[in-house]
Amino acid sequence: MTSDILIIGGGVIGLAIAVELKLRGANVTVLCRDFNAAASHAAAGMLAPDAENISDPAMYDLCWRSRALYSDWTRKLEELTGLSTLYWPCGILAPVYEESGAGIKSTVASARESPAYWLDKTAIGQYQPGLSSEVVGGWWYPEDAQVDNRALARVLWAAAESLGVELKDGVTVEGLLQQQGKVLGVQTSAGVMRATHYVLATGAWANELLPLPVRPVKGQMVRLRVPDAVPELPLKRILFGENTYIVPRRNRTIIIGATSEDVGFTPHNTPAGIQKLLQQATRLYPQLQDYPIEEIWWGFRPATPDELPILGTSPCTNLTLAIGHYRNGILLAPITAALIADFISEQKSDPLLSHFNYSRFLAQTSTSTSMLTHSANFSNGHHAIVALDNSALTNLDSPLTIAGKTFKSRLMTGTGKYRSIEEMQQSIVASECQIVTVAVRRVQTKAPGHEGLAEALDWQKIWMLPNTAGCQTAEEAIRVARLGREMAKLLGQEDNNFVKLEVIPDPKYLLPDPIGTLQAAEQLVKEGFAVLPYINADPMLAKRLEEVGCATVMPLASPIGSGQGLKTTANIQIIIENSRIPVVVDAGIGAPSEAAQAMELGADALLINSAIALAKNPAAMARAMNLAAVAGRLAYLAGRMPIKDYASASSPLTGTISS
């Protein structure tokens, strides 16, 4: 059997992808071990990116975008099948108990896309009668919603069937036939099946086929029924409480969930698990203690170490991953389907996918290196991933810390010289940088290439580094630095006091003025700024700036924008050896090899703009610079071999066979 696309996994994620690809004209087959055993049937169907207070910015964006698709997506499925998904935009109420109530009003970021409203004890009691007397208030998330997950699974199956997707239930995939980085077919209980492209959507069972860190997290759940004696549905919105959630359905049932147990694939409900659920639920909403139990069940969530999904490319060129959705598989079904279908059918990779790539587990960045990986070609021609777990590397490095703020990435980028705002956005995502420098004057004057720049980036994810580019005197730089701090506040970074200090009076060579830089730095430090000064590679000036309280020093590698590479190596090494603050190599780097070399010297970070912005493919160059920074840092920490004036055999001479 041969298809265009073969999807391994028949839960909500696999079926959603199948429907989307089929609608785009692909020939699709879905292999499902047991449709009724999929984790999709064991969920509660909450669509709750706000109530769950998701802290990872990329994950929040993914969840928010998916929830925004839900109404139209479910309507389309219902039109295809004539069946209902029971989608219900009911909102979610998150009550708070006395002991956890202090300061709770400040826990939700005001800059998030969705509104959230704090209700005091009186208001929440009026809005939802019957809550425990221990509740002192709570948050109301009006845009969160729910869907009946079991109904959704049935509708997706019916939609796939009506569109002509080939559905094969009761088929177990036993292995992937791989050769030279490609999947040639899948070995199943029904024989070998082949396709042009494959999608892995097997949930908690993913690492039975690939060495990916997806593990099962068991969840037990209970369904109650509202007694006939209660005339109206007492709950009309989800209650998202401390360690429990209560989900009312319009058919007069109420779902209580869910335990979180690291017990592998251990099946069955347990008295301890069910007791815990009922105790927590009845504490929040006491009248549930009198409702009859209709059903108890369990399921296995597919969890990753960082609790984020794995989406997009895999070690095999024709295998796409859609696994590890953990608690949010139902919520993320529509966005996963759209992104994966775009990726496969149109070769279009949404920038958001870069945050969920499998490589984050196979090759940790230098800030927390605990595992190195390499590829091995075995004699049978198969391509395998080999992970070398070395405890000696676990604490090899620590995060970059500047003025008390920590960053995982050691690459900073800029926003100037790009051909378009879109290229700049794509490059910043590809670079995985966390600090982006912005020319305050150019943003304020809407200079060419800077129109709409402040609105083009997500400042919840990226730390702004305002710079005083264009300032020729210390007085100008001080004034612009103050404007930069206000600009950062307006964009939501209230505590951002960073400034990249540039004092450049020479328009031809663009070399920084050491005297003006020192004067401005002294004043800005007094005013509470974290000053990151751009300087010539002058060890004496670097030490003086450190003494006046600068947060970093940023010596140039060669003239700014020249792409000449490292021309000041000896002086940069002296600065690094004598500095007790981070040293950021800034200006002149033109290629990834030069970026790696600067990090091998022991630099703490790099700031690269022109080499990325002026590349033929800026996003690809941004990614290359990211990898170079990581490689250079790891090489520096590893310690290179001594340089010798003579040859030295790689293999020892002892124990050799002699004639």
From TrEMBL:
Subcellular location: Cytoplasm
GO molecular function: flavin adenine dinucleotide binding; glycine oxidase activity; thiazole synthase activity
Taxonomic superkingdom: Bacteria
Gene3D superfamilies: Aldolase class I, D-Amino Acid Oxidase, subunit A, domain 2, FAD/NAD(P)-binding domain
Keyword Metal-binding part of the UniProt annotation: no
Stored NCBIfam families: thiamin_ThiO (TIGR02352)
One GO CC term, this protein: cytoplasm
InterPro entries, sorted: Aldolase_TIM (IPR013785), FAD-dep_OxRdtase (IPR006076), FAD/NAD-bd_sf (IPR036188), Gly_oxidase_ThiO (IPR012727), Thiazole_synthase_ThiG (IPR033983), ThiG (IPR008867)
Residues of the Thiazole synthase ThiG domain: 401-652
Keyword annotations from UniProtKB, A to Z: Cytoplasm, Oxidoreductase, Schiff base, Thiamine biosynthesis, Transferase
Job description of the protein: Catalyzes the rearrangement of 1-deoxy-D-xylulose 5-phosphate (DXP) to produce the thiazole phosphate moiety of thiamine. Sulfur is provided by the thiocarboxylate moiety of the carrier protein ThiS. In vitro, sulfur can be provided by H(2)S.
Pathway where it operates: Cofactor biosynthesis; thiamine diphosphate biosynthesis
Subunit relationships: Homotetramer. Forms heterodimers with either ThiH or ThiS.
Protein name: Thiazole synthase
Family as reported in the entry's similarity comment: Belongs to the ThiG family.
Catalytic residues in the record: 500 (schiff-base intermediate with dxp)
Enzyme class: transferase
Primary residence: cytoplasm
Chain segments annotated as coiled-coil in the UniProt record: none
EC number: 2.8.1.10
Catalysed reactions, semicolon-separated: glycine + O2 + H2O = glyoxylate + H2O2 + NH4(+); [ThiS sulfur-carrier protein]-C-terminal-Gly-aminoethanethioate + 2-iminoacetate + 1-deoxy-D-xylulose 5-phosphate = [ThiS sulfur-carrier protein]-C-terminal Gly-Gly + 2-[(2R,5Z)-2-carboxy-4-methylthiazol-5(2H)-ylidene]ethyl phosphate + 2 H2O + H(+)
Keyword Lipid metabolism attached: no
UniProt GO BP: thiamine diphosphate biosynthetic process
Binding site for 1-deoxy-D-xylulose 5-phosphate: 561, 587-588, 609-610
